[in-house]
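Subject: Protein record for review, amino acid sequence with backbone structure tokens
Category: Structural biology, sequence-to-fold work with a learned token vocabulary.
Format: Residues in single-letter code; tokens as whole numbers, each standing for a residue.
Body of memo: The sequence and its backbone structure tokens, given next.
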Amino acid sequence: MRAILTALFAATFLSACAVPNPDTDEQVPLGDFKLDLNVAVTDQAKKMGVTRAATAEEWEQVLEAAIDKRFRRYDGEKLYHISYSLDGYILATKGGRLALAPRSALSMTVHIWDSETKTILKDRSKQILVLEQLDGETFVGSGFFNTKEQQMENLGAQFAKAVERWLVANGDLFGLDVDADAKDASAKDDLAALAAQAKADAAAGSSATTATPAKPAVN
């Protein structure tokens, strides 16, 4: 969890980007994919630092609605379940600049299932770090301008888009060719967390190997 917090601070000044909207976004090809069950597990979520509180039921409603909105439009010939767990979250509190507090974020673990065989494709599971998008208002902390509900909907939309990138990167499951660009796009969703973990590990290793200076001898 500490690595994720480090990643949030490191990503504070990323460029602004519009919140994804399936109503206006181009629908990317997903071959024979058709969404069957959409299952959110939110009752074990941890608060990742100073945050507004949200209930498991609130998260379940927001996340399942975002996944439904993005993926119910696909009408392929084979059914798949998408299941995901909310590992942790931050909903930025009122006030404070981004330099002093991380922006709102979700840490998620996502799985895809073959509905016919009822088996989870474990080798395709993914951990995703979702950051809220910035605009002129959220630069000073989204908690100052946005309600908790707006923050959650923003993150839900970002999460659903990240899941779409993940499915495109695994297009071979749905009868599609997969190119390097698709895999790179999906990899960026967990790059910040991986980089933060590497930084934390390097710092820990450096501390362990640094000798404590000897005290001068008393004459």
In short: The first strand starts at residue 33 and ends at 41. The chain has five helices and six strands. The beta strands are 33-41, 46-47, 78-90, 105-114, 119-120, 126-131. The chain has one domain: 2-14+21-202.
